[in-house]
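Consider the tokenized backbone below.
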């Protein structure tokens, strides 16, 4: 992972230009796609909040955990208490509801990113641009060590694709033995797993199922929309496996649904998070230009990194520790946050951009740089 330092807004823009230039020189790639995330404190990890402090108790078959349960409880409660707040923009699927939950501070397997550098900077420097300088905000400014994370989502999803071709057990675990009450024998299932892997490998160069080589449309052809895939899956309801067997369904997209939407557990180190887009379900998400990485349910092991807190140690699934993620991450440390915040506010940054409600917009009116 590459780390850079900046004292001004100009230096931040310069670093991004240099990162893009380096990518083009080394990879002969087309347009670079960057997503951004701002942290007020540098030590904050790139892992979803529902995993922090979890003890990861799985059943004997390693098919369901107490984290699945924690996620389901949150979905049930959030949906029940907010059903009347989403009107015509009603989310249709659990993974879609989680996007809304994440943006309104419910713990999920999703982690927020933005397609806008300005939004990420506003989050990283939120305490410095906050209209009300009370004791808590002043304290946050004193301890702030803001950083900007930069992610290449298209390249992360390429790692996801190659994970399925490299680990046969991932495909095997995703294919159920039963469909419509009919059970396949193990031999039939193994044959199907082998065919799927062979098909993904064979078509990789042509980009049939995930366009790795193409440059003309890479701003759209490498980014995944899980909620859209859920809608497509409904067309094959009751015969999904048959459709996969006949390659009527994109086998890569089917595997994504199984791990990232259905929550099939996976061993740590076998499958990285997935970069996804979702429909905008609120003005807040639209203003923040929100995009996400969604994590599968990892089965922890003794070799994984741990985070030490006042209450003890707990596992960290931070992307900055994952082998597949590290080459696609960059970090810019903001050395003089007060200066950068003032420069950012001169360009029009304000808290109301992040949280566009009447109270914050009113407070922004009274704010003085």
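A designed sequence for it:
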């Amino acid at each position: 992972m590459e780390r850079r330092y900046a004292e001004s807004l100009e230096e931040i823009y310069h670093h991004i230009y240099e990162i893009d230039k380096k990518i083009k020189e080394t990879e002969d790639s087309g347009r670079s796609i960057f997503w951004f995330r701002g942290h007020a404190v540098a030590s904050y990890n790139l892992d979803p909040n529902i995993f922090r402090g979890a003890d990861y108790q799985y059943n004997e078959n390693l098919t369901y955990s107490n984290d699945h349960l924690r996620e389901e409880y949150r979905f049930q409660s959030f949906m029940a208490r907010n059903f009347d707040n989403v009107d015509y923009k009603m989310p249709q699927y659990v993974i879609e509801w989680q996007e809304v939950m994440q943006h309104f501070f419910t713990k999920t397997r999703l982690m927020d990113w933005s397609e806008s550098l300005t939004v990420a900077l506003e989050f990283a420097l939120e305490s410095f641009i906050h209209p009300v300088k009370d004791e808590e905000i002043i304290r946050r400014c004193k301890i702030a060590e803001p950083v900007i994370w930069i992610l290449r989502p298209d390249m992360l999803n390429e790692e996801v694709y190659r994970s399925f071709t490299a680990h046969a057990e991932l495909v095997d675990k995703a294919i159920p033995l039963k469909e419509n009450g009919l059970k396949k024998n193990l031999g039939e299932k193994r044959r199907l797993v082998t065919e799927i892997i062979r098909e993904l490998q064979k078509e990789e160069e042509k980009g049939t199922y995930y366009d790795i080589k193409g440059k003309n449309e890479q701003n759209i052809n490498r980014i995944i929309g899980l909620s859209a895939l859920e809608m497509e899956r409904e067309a094959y309801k009751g015969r999904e496996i048959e459709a996969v067997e006949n390659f009527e369904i994109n086998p890569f997209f089917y595997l994504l649904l199984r791990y990232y939407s259905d929550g099939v557990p996976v061993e740590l180190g076998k499958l990285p998070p997935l970069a996804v887009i979702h429909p905008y379900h609120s003005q807040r998400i639209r203003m923040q230009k929100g995009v996400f990485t969604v994590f599968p349910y990892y089965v922890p092991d003794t070799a994984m990194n741990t985070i030490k807190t006042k209450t003890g140690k707990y596992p960290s699934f931070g992307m900055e520790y994952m082998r597949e993620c590290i080459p696609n991450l960059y970090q810019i440390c903001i050395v003089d946050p007060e200066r950068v915040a003032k420069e950012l506010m001169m360009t029009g940054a304000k808290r109301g951009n992040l949280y566009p409600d009447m109270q914050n917009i009113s407070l922004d009116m009274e704010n003085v740089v």
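The chain has a mean pLDDT of 85.
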